[in-house]
Amino acid sequence: MKRRSLWTAAIAAFFTFLAAFFSVCAEEQEAKQLHVVFSHDIHSHLDTFPTVEGDTETMIGGMGRMMTFIQQEKESSPDTLLLDGGDFSMGTVYQMLYETEAPELRMFGYLGYDAVTIGNHEFDYGSEGLARMLKRAAKSGEALPEFVLCNVKWKKQLNQEQQMLKNAFEEYGIKPYTMIQKGDVRIAVIGVFGEDALECVPSCALEFEDPVKAVKRTVKKIQDEEEADLIVCLSHSGTTGNPETSEDEILAEEVPELDLIVSGHTHTKLKQPIKVGNTAIVSCGEYGKQMGKLDLVQKEDGRWEIRDYELVSMNNEFSSDQGVLERLEQFSELIDREYLSVYGFTRDMVLCENPYLFATKDDLYKSKTENNLGNLVSDAFYYAACKLAAGTPPADVAVVPSGCVRDTFTTGSITVEEVFKSYSLGTGPDRRAGYPLIGVYLTGDELLAAAEIDASLSDFMKSARLYASGITYTFNPNRMILNKVTRAKLIRQPAAPWQGAGGTAYEEIRDDELYFVVSDLYTGQMLKEVEKLSYGILSVTPKDKNGKKIEDLESCILYDKDGNEIKAWEALAEYMLTFEKEGETRVMPAYYKTMHGRKLVDNSKRAADLLKNPSKYAVIICTIAVSAGAITVVGAAAAARCIRKRIRLKR
């Protein structure tokens, strides 16, 4: 009898286990799932392009390969959600058609993107350019992605610029969020524009609400009015190495209802998602070199977990979709005919052959030392001011910040398209692609301040690392902040610096003398951000030849003899046309194979070297520190006297 009871209990336990097992399986089968593919910071890289990844030269990216990848993903997951986190424009010759053809948004539509948001570089053509681009896309009649943005502040009274943008936003149909159905999953997709992104648009006409407040309000509206299974935020804010200042990590912490943040702006490549509570933050890097993909599975509590997250390189494992290539070819014909012909160029025109390895774009950010890419670009600006500009003196110094250099040069043929890609941002008053060069006067004292910006502040703002032609300076990284530059002199060189390899003449910099300095328009506009970073201690104020402060930097644009703006990219192309020929082909000079002592590092830690020749900025800091210390001591002494007096009174 006892044995029979044991058998009965065992059989019952077995069937209980089976029931539980199949119940769990059924629950897993019933759990909602979603496949997501994402990108951000494409920057008009619609074609496959040559670049350097690590130490390897490669052809990568391009919407033809992206389309092939997307189609493969949709074959296995037909209800794939396809998203982009902004900065889809500005970076290649396709941006030349930004406001007339809107190629980036139209190609997103062709690839089947569901939703996108705005980035700071969508403002590079100004309010008028952005408005024209949105209206052109809307009037194309083609399939377009939803456009989401929740933190624009539309006041009752708008100025003309703001009203123009509001009309364009409405014509396209931009809204704070959109609801998308994919299979049995209902998704709310929000867009938001970050604080640092806004600081990168010094001429932005729009006002923006705090991103966290705007997203919180939008999430509450979704929860009150929609039946969303999942909330995704397309954030053009970015992440950094410090969670306390990393905008999208702060957003995830403050708005825990978000399930997924696609994080653009900082060009971050996250090999694994950042998890903040139940929120996942993902990023795949810039220029469409990689696309991100992931699977989301809903948990019992209604929240979602990521499975199978991967960044997929758009390398030659993916063939280019023929339909995409045909559409891009139509745009390319317009670029040659309507834009480059004005300059006497075509996009595939070879300017020179390059046998040398150049520093990468990332190298400009990583190190404060001299490199050949920074030298080449700054020399091109110097040359343009000396030989192409009309009505202005030759340059004393030309300056290039790392943040404006967008790519490097590989070995082999350098074409007009590759030159444009290397310095592609913005536009000028002529509304043609590319920031124009400007020429302003700075005092010798301000030249030293610029060197100190590079030596002391660029670790905090790496896009402000400076590369210069016409000046040399030495800095000691071990000295006190704003006191690192120990020596600076002008370099007197030929208009085409590569022709001066035989010898170099130096000249002392005089503090009160005015020097003619050349850079691009955007760099001039961003000077106030550098001043803020130094809390007003470092000040570089552009002046005219009489030493009067310049109020409008557009009045300083350099023009050629025919009255055309000299573009930064054009200066680089024209400079390459000065290179000597070997046979029928111009060749990159060996001058750019080596360094030339423009930025020298003195690593001495000797007390005498750390304290000698203090800069006026160091004196200011020390004076403030001593004053603060004195005030603290006096305050503490006064407090002590009061305490002693009270004790005596109590007695």
CATH topology of the largest domain: Purple Acid Phosphatase, chain A, domain 2
The whole-number mean of residue pLDDT values reads: 90
Q: Which blocks of ≥5 consecutive residues have pLDDT under 50?
A: 22-28
Cα distance, first to last residue? 94 Å
Q: Which bin fits the share of residues in helices?
A: 25-40%
Give the overall silhouette.
Answer: globular
Task: Provide the CATH top-level class of the largest domain.
Answer: Alpha Beta
What would you call the quaternary organization? Answer: single chain
Helix- and strand-based class?
A: alpha/beta
- Give the second-level CATH assignment, the architecture of the largest domain: 4-Layer Sandwich
Proportion of strand residues: 15-25%
How many strand segments? 26
Widest sheet: strand ordering: 6-5-4-1-13-14
Radius of gyration: 29 Å
**Biggest β-sheet strands, sense, barrel:** 6 strands, mixed
Task: State the domain count.
Answer: 2
Assign the CATH superfamily of the largest domain.
Metallo-dependent phosphatases
What's the number of helices? 19
Could you explain the architecture of this structure?
It comes from Brotonthovivens ammoniilytica. Keywords: Hydrolase, Membrane, Nucleotide-binding, Signal, Transmembrane, Transmembrane helix. Residues 1-26 form the signal peptide. The chain folds into two domains: 26-313, 4-Layer Sandwich (Purple Acid Phosphatase, chain A, domain 2), CATH 3.60.21.10; 355-601, 5'-Nucleotidase, C-terminal domain (5'-nucleotidase,  domain 2, Alpha-Beta Complex), CATH 3.90.780.10. The model is unreliable at 22-28 (pLDDT under 50). By secondary structure, it is of the alpha/beta class. A hairpin with a 2-residue loop joins β11 and β12 (279-282). It is 36% helix and 20% strand. The protein contains 19 helices and 26 strands.
